[in-house]
Prior knowledge:
By secondary structure, the chain is α+β, with helices and mostly antiparallel strands. It has five helices and 20 strands.
Amino acid sequence: MTAVAASLDPRTTLARPDLAEQALEGVVRAAAFRAVRAMHCAVPVADIQAEAVAGEHPVDQLIFGEAFDVLETREELVWGRARRDGVVGWVLRAALKDGAPLATHRVGSTAQALPLNALIVEAGDVPGLAPIGSFAAEPVDVAEGLLGTPYKLGGRSSLGTDCCGLVQQALYACGRAAPRYADQQAELGQAVAAGEARRGDLVIWLDPDEGPWNGHAGFMLDGGRVLHAVGRLGGVVIEPFAEADARHRVAGSAGPAIRRL
């Protein structure tokens, strides 16, 4: 294995010992290499799962219109990579259609049947849509508009979201880089001392011992409150920072990372 291969993130690398995408030939070791086939999400949301078992361990979602590059089909599931955020996993074949048409609009409102940031082709005069290239101004304002959204493990939409999905979709709505997971989001922006946190800063708690899906993320509303999606609280809520910190801080850690975008 090359040094480059060793540094690749398995969550976003379309490769297994038996099969890898053709673009990785010479980079990773696999028994076979194959070209991907472009498809796109044709339902409001579709879970991406870590394992080839429907309904098991969702790690991400596709949102309507998003492209998914398929490498393998296995009965009712396909294995590939979400083109928008790069996550690799299994998706129900019935949730996808062939091709990856270029969107002209995105859903810019939470009041529509399709979720926020869904991608639309040739929308016509449909309310609640924004042309591609037109974005909201502040991620924290978008996130605040998602208050009350139900908690959904692996979710990243206005229909249901986990903590990192809330951050990601708020960033997407503003045209910003939006990785999927807490450790990736902790690399965004610039570090800020906890005592200097202000509205709109990201706040991220990491636990390296929990593996690749670890961590918790949200937005600071001000120096004393955090906006985040919490399973035990049922969804997207505003909570005193001290209470959130007490629950999510790993024993012995220096506390959460505060990142200013």
